[in-house]
Amino acid sequence: MMLQIPDVLSPDEVAHCRAVIDAAPWVDGNATSGFQAAMAKNNQQLPQDGPAAREVGAIIVQALQANPLFVSAALPHTILPPLFNRYGEGMGFGDHVDNSIRRNPATGAQIRTDLSATLFLSDPDDYDGGELVVDDTYGSHLVKLPAGSLILYPASSLHHVTPVTRGTRTASFFWIQSLVRDDAKRALMLDMDVSIQRLAGQVGQADPSVLALTGTYHNLLRMWAEV
């Protein structure tokens, strides 16, 4: 399941985040790459343990936790601290699949990466190229979203970033361990939640049909959740 989540950050929040990270020092993006990714990767990255990454990462996580669509779609167990990358002219990132396990630098715990997320911090008009291309069973999907919007997709997907030919593409990227590991089951849970909210808007939250569907939703979550 691929899902676009608009307006995770407001324009004012995007402007503040960009002011903080643009003023910080950047390093070679291979600082956090695995062996295979390092062969395909050409970008810059904000040091993940620096004050700018920590400050802006906290803003992003707080916004995600308050976003109903993100919570419903991801069913997050753990959100890894957001990282930040920047692509200038001629930079890109070839085909790769994200690591299945990553270490949470805040806790040292090993985290299963069920979902990958990219939060765009540059508007599409600011650069040419730089599309995120995600391949799945339905083909290739080109993603280039407004600043403040996010794309969520299975971390097992083959994906790449096309070379930037003008301007600079700045984004945050991170991974989520979901309460529900299986992508098809997460998609079903999202569909059910959307249906519950739509039905509740029509007949009221206390209607027996809404209560019954809500009960089914939570029973499925009890069966499928890994905590």
Automatic annotation (TrEMBL):
Entries under InterPro entries matching the protein: Oxoglu/Fe-dep_dioxygenase_dom (IPR005123), PKHD_C (IPR041097), PKHD_hydroxylase (IPR023550), Pro_4_hyd_alph (IPR006620), Pro_4_hyd_alph_FE2OG_OXY (IPR044862)
Lipid metabolism as UniProt keyword: no
Xref: Pfam families: 2OG-FeII_Oxy_3, PKHD_C
Any Gene Ontology biological process: DNA damage response
Fe2OG dioxygenase domain span: 78-178
Residues that coordinate or bind 2-oxoglutarate: 169
Keyword Metal-binding: yes
Binding site for Fe cation: 96, 98, 159
GO molecular function: 2-oxoglutarate-dependent dioxygenase activity; iron ion binding; L-ascorbic acid binding
Obligatory cofactor(s): L-ascorbate; Fe(2+)
Coiled-coil positions: none
Alphabetical UniProt keywords: Dioxygenase, Iron, Metal-binding, Oxidoreductase, Vitamin C
Cofactor remark from the record: Binds 1 Fe(2+) ion per subunit.
Domain of life: Bacteria
Transmembrane segments: none
Protein name in the entry: Fe2+-dependent dioxygenase
Protein's organism: Caulobacter flavus
